[in-house]
């Protein structure tokens, strides 16, 4: 590994900082990341912009400290078995960042199955907690590979509920529906475009708006001026590299540029 | 002389002998964690058929589906965690071999069990609103709140139907012969709710101890099951294998990989796995697992 590659800001680091920003203004709530980059981003936020965040080991413990990815818990500050996760979902003081096999123009998410529900072409996990999350607590999505396979006109099965469908389902569904951010390996988006549609908020350094458009399978709302996603600060870079992910596990989800060039893209 | 509560110890086969074709069976644990696998394996060996299985699913669901035991499945997910997608379940869904499927949000699942445990027809909840859970299960209805909110509106909520069970099967770390039982791992999951949602509950456990032994090294708060919820107790050491049973043992990842490879492989791969591990009784299974663990050491 060249010195240059180890010190320059990588795409994975940009994603981690963008995810951290999604949790920056949440205050004292339970941050529930699903997946590696979301876990990294949440812990980065807790060590920088939002120390009040409540985090867990992803199993059953609230952690008082902020251990590196997949390290054992140090100081424990609470107990969060699955039954209590459901309690907190309904209580509302939670922000979950889930994965998404499909996301559509209206911010609906699918993790259940591809194809027809009665006999799917490809069975996935099942809807898990997505229906409940999206009508109870703040929900964001992490998409490590922004492509037209993920961003589709209409999802095959609605697991996570976007704002338009929530509104159509009535006040009980819309009241706490809060789809906050969609962070991908190319860009940051939200669902506050015209008619509750997906809107581009920023493109990551080195990514063009056209690239994001081409990787999105629906008409994306693009403002006149699209800012560039900020690079992580020097402090954040140290926290990511030295503290939270010294082994570089994040590159398994968002490969380094040299790896990207070497791969089949 | 005092007569004490009755002794509910049974064998694995006696538990399965209490089951009937067409029953609704709830399986405790969570995904690939603390599943009553010895009892599931005994169902695989039995002639039972047309079962309705209610489970936050792992290999329990995959194995029963693969064996053609499942007429109806109630689930929110099926996963092996370190292997995200359960190959046998995937295959069953993609080949359409489970005649009836009910897909719920994972929190709705708890609410449904709670309704059954509280002998209510339903409990209200937000989860499901706006999602395809209500589209694909059109028989799940909504209910209007009789109470006005601050704006004078009456919220329309999901009436989560009770998930009533004929039988619950759960696996605990320790139990006494009367059915009091503790979990020693990080999470109780929902095994108490499964038992209370069922007409009868059978508890397999790593070890049967005397009642006083249940709280010797363990806080009383870990006594999740009370004997009034339990019809039978069966000691099945390593009975949750290959799922977790912390702290007695963790998930057998090597074995799980072998299971997933066989289940996701050819018919021959699966036949070889079945022949090696699932063709005998529980003792034969455990012996085959021990031999497998020795390989490559």
TrEMBL record, chain A:
InterPro entries: CoA_trans_fam_I (IPR004165), NagB/RpiA_transferase-like (IPR037171). Belongs to the 3-oxoacid CoA-transferase subunit B family. This is CoA-transferase. It comes from Nocardioides abyssi.
UniProtKB/TrEMBL annotation, chain B:
It comes from the Bacteria. Its EC number is 2.8.3.-. Keywords: Transferase. GO terms for molecular function: transferase activity. SMART domains: CoA_trans. InterPro entries: CoA_trans_fam_I, NagB/RpiA_transferase-like. Pfam families: CoA_trans. It is an enzyme of class 2 (transferase). This is CoA-transferase. It comes from Nocardioides abyssi.
